[in-house]
Amino acid sequence: MCRWLAYSGEPLRPSTLILDAEHSLVKQSLNSPLGAETVNGDGFGFGWYPSDQVTGGKPALFHSIEPAWNDQNLRELTQAIESPLFFSHVRAAGGPPIQQTNCHPFRYENWMFMHNGFLGDFVKMKRDLVFAVDPSLYPHIHGTTDSEVIFHLALSLGLRDDPIAGVTKAVQLVESVGHEHGIRFPMQGTMALSDGATIWAFRYSTQGRSRTLFHSADIDTLRELYPEMEQRLKLFGRHAHVVVSEPLNELPGAFLEVPESTVAILDESGYHHEPFLAHDD
């Protein structure tokens, strides 16, 4: 359906990953070997927390319905700024129209969210799910995607106090409503969430066959594995990490797959994995 990338670490020019990597996000928009669709040209989004901003501040957003490979503004912007935490997303529309309000990431206060996947037969569930959004949050839903509804459901169900619990309750509600409507597999996808300090990356589907998700190895590990790449790795600080729909290069050991039904938590101490709505064997 889509491809996405989330970075956290020392301030970095986003173009380093979004444009310049061997298998960058822009290149994935043209050719995504691990994606459900090989081309993701139905718009894109870029969201970032400014380097000079106090942690927990509001992120900035740039959305466009242009294909990512064809947008000069994306190149100008990602080459001009530096950010310690940013999201980027390229879209393959699965039904909702191609418009800026349907481009990820989505934002509420200091939170950013993006999703690769879908809600099965969303049109059957939409009314029930939208009515479950807190009335104070409903006006902040500007587009028509199932992804934006998931985000606002999680906000309604406690995301700001406990991100994992909020997303858990939102997904459980989606599955409950879906099953009431006779939908066998209501939830599919990977999701990224941040408050400006931590990234939570979820991989989950009702079917247990979720979209792909990977995160990078630590920079020190990469230096040990590939000493010949020292000059290239100098672009990154020791705390640089990236979570991606698919690897940005083909180097063995550089990217590690996030297991099924898992949330990968990325903070100052590195990665931690926790089970997320694990299916019974």
From TrEMBL:
Keyword Mitochondrion: no
Pfam families named among the record's database cross-references: GATase_4 (PF13230)
Domain of life: Bacteria
InterPro entries for the chain: EgtC-like (IPR026869), Gamma-glu_amide_hydrolase (IPR052373), GATase_2_dom (IPR017932), Ntn_hydrolases_N (IPR029055)
Keyword rRNA processing in annotation: no
Domain Glutamine amidotransferase type-2: 2-269
Alphabetic keyword roster: Glutamine amidotransferase
Entry-linked SUPFAM superfamilies: N-terminal nucleophile aminohydrolases (Ntn hydrolases) (SSF56235)
Name recorded for this polypeptide: Class II glutamine amidotransferase
UniProt organism field: Agromyces neolithicus
